Structure formats: structure tokens, C-alpha cells
Amino acid sequence: MRPPPITIDLMSPAAQPTMQQQKNGQISGDLYECEQRLSESLQKLSCVVVAFSGGVDSALLAYSALACLGPDKVLAVTADSDSLAQGELEHCRTTAALWGLPWLSVQTREITNPAYLVNGADRCFWCKDALMDALNPVAIQRRASVVLGVNVDDLGDHRPGQLAAQERGALFPLVEAGLDKASIRALALHYGLEVWDRPAMPCLASRIPYGTAVSVALLRSVDRAEAAVRGFGFSDVRVRHYGETARIEVPVSELAAAVAQSEQLVAALTALGFSYVTLDLAGLRSGNLNQAVLPIGSSI
Hints:
The chain is of the alpha/beta class. The protein is 42% helix and 11% strand.
């Protein structure tokens, strides 16, 4: 039995195009096919442990698993680590409680691994390796499969963590079902999940350029800086940490708003210890530091 949908304001401007398309029958068939493919992928599994970050990908995966398999066969697990932004653990806890989704948190210790701390192009590999160290014992105890919210769009990015997870036995039902980010958000909206339009919140280490050693102090500095920028009304934010320089990224549509508040932004970030505050005029590009390791001409 499917868990009850979460109530959101479906009359909001952001939801209107999707609602109108559904009324016109333009995407209802596609959504049905997405739902069916994902259900078929999950029903092959008798029991799952979902790596639950609270973002739309893992949320849709956990919600769908709960609907397909039932609460006795699903456990959502959130990795509590130094690279998790403040408030994200509580977001996962409250979301799971709202849905009746069995949930727990586990500590991951990637910060103790020198291969992770050196912050090479394989940093993500060691992060996911630490995640699997934490998830696999839980899955073995429950005789379950570990599933991650990797989607089709992720396959074109530099994400060695996917390899680490696969090598350790994790499965990617969203990929098997052929779901990309757009279809995931549309299906989450269809279910009424509040996270359907939630900005991505990748780990804080992704704000530190490759080759700059990761430390708890740097991760906390990034976390405080992004919280400060969000305080000015920007929900989708990256603050790239270049030593004394903070490079702010917001969507292109919000660049003018950032410029209008530049004096306040500079004051807020210099108060946190940065000597220089810059705004990336190309706008927010998730994973753009990966350009340093992708072949010329690749796009992400």
C-alpha cells in the first residue's frame, strides 16, 4: 500500500506548468511509465537499505521503496559525517518520521582516511567507500540490498563514488528504471513530496578544489559561509573555498540579486574570515570543480 502523499501547495507558480501538462495528458503517460519501471526495479528486491541524503533522488527512491515493499522491508540510513551540512541530518530525520519511513543515522569516518584528506580526483571514491563500510553491515544483518539514489544524469559526471559503491555491491534502481533528474522531480511532485524542488546539497568537500587538503576546519568554514549566503534569500548556493577567497555561486537568474546585496554579502563572509569575496558570473554549476579532471569538451 502506498504511503499517504505529503501535502504541498500545488497551486504555486513553480508547480503550474507541471499541473497543466498533466491535465493536458502530455506527461501523465510518461510519469506512469516512470512509476512502473521504478516499481519493477524495486520489486525485484526483497529488502533494501536506502542511502538517504534527504535530496529529491534518495527521497523518491526511499518513498517508492516504502510503497512497493512496505515498512518492514525498507530502512533509510543517513550518513552523519563532517561533510554533511548543518541541518541536513535533522531534515532527514523529520522527513522519514513524516512518511512513516524506518530510519537511522550512522557515523562515517572518511575524514580519518589519508586518501580522502589529500583531496585528489578520487576523493569521492573514498567517501562512498566509507559510506559502504557503514551501510553493508546493516544490510547484511537485514539480508537487504544497499540502494543509492544515482540517476541517469549522474552517469555523465566525474563521480568515482559510483564505482566504489558498485564494487561494494550497491544497486542503482533509478538508473535501472531509466530516470533522469527531470523525471525524478516530476514524479516526486506527482506524489506530493515536499522535496520535489529542493536544491541539491552535495557534500561540503565538493566546494574545496582538488589538491587542497580537506580538513574539518575547511568543511565548517564552507558550511558557515553557505548558511550566511542563504540568509540573504538564496536557496541554491555554493561557496567555493580558495583559501582567503570565497567564490559565491548562485543561479544565473539570481546574479542581479546577489550584486544588489554585494556589500552585505562581503561583510558577512569577511566576518567569517575570508579576505576576498567574489561572485561567479557564470552562475551555479553543480560539480563545476570536476572540470579540472574531465576531458576537454566534456559537459556536466
